[in-house]
């Protein structure tokens, strides 16, 4: 089963989040960004992935999860787990 979206968990002022956001926007990849400071449930998701920490950016694509991945890693994960989300 393939993933239906790319979810990027972030928080305001995070330079790593800003860098990943910019890279994903340059790549043309659509993603859903969730602010963990505004969404306690999202913060819980991040803690469950990041060994109890609220480390962002954390990215989820179906079953694939990564803490502070590069744009290249996210695009490669999309190609593997959700190729239909890539631009033609």
UniProtKB/TrEMBL annotation:
InterPro entries xrefs: Glutaredoxin, Glutaredoxin_subgr, Grx-like_ET, Thioredoxin-like_sf
CDD domains for the chain: NrdH
Record-linked Pfam families: Glutaredoxin
Gene Ontology MF annotations: electron transfer activity
Superkingdom, taxonomy of origin: Bacteria
Biological process (GO), any one: cell redox homeostasis
Sequence ranges assigned to domain Glutaredoxin in this UniProt record: 6-63
PANTHER family, alphabetized: GLUTAREDOXIN (PTHR34386), GLUTAREDOXIN-LIKE PROTEIN NRDH (PTHR34386:SF1)
Protein name: NrdH-redoxin
Annotated source species: Saccharopolyspora karakumensis
